[in-house]
Amino acid sequence: MTTPMDNTPECGVTLEQLxxxxxxxxxSTTGSPAAGLESHIRQxxxxxxxxxxxxxLNGFTKELITHETEEAGGPDTxxxxxxxxxxxxxxxxxxxxxxxxSRESDALSQTEGSVIALIRSAxxxxxxxxxxxxxxxxxVTVLGELITINITVTAIWGHTITETTxxxxxxxxxxxxxxxxxxxxxINITVNDITGGVEQKEDDYVSAGH
Length: 210
Description:
By secondary structure, the protein is an alpha+beta fold. Helix content is 42%, strand content 20%. The protein contains 6 helices and 6 strands, in the order ααααββαββαββ. Strand 4, helix 6 and strand 5 form a beta-alpha-beta unit. It is flat.
């Protein structure tokens, strides 16, 4: 059985380089390093997935800072390191997921990394939450095999956990049904961090499975 998220070759561009590029407002000029990086991103699926995830994370961080400013608290970004670590792994191609074809001679597939990027993109539309880790559990290399999606998230204090996780599960389920042929058995969502509140109690950490 293939190991989830196998170590595929890196393109050589780091998350730090992509993050710095996103934060640079100056326009790139022909032949400049920035122009070269932009050209690379357009051709590299791994970097496009990373850029999309970083943009989502930036949006979530801005929402968090706005919330904490209103609450007169200091921003706690200790959860960022874990999220960035997961991005390094999850934006690799991973396993090859077969797609059904009407012709036996056609070999169609999509990568595990592209599915995870799809799940993260679906989560972008859900306010007050950011996906920290996403795993596809089961043998995705076998067409029709039952697959479980395990997602961990960070939530902003003040958002209703039940409604937020329900919205996230619905968005992920719809995206997977539209863009993949995976046989989804369940989507498990665990809130492992609630940030932005003055006080956080143990019972604020919730697991929402389906």
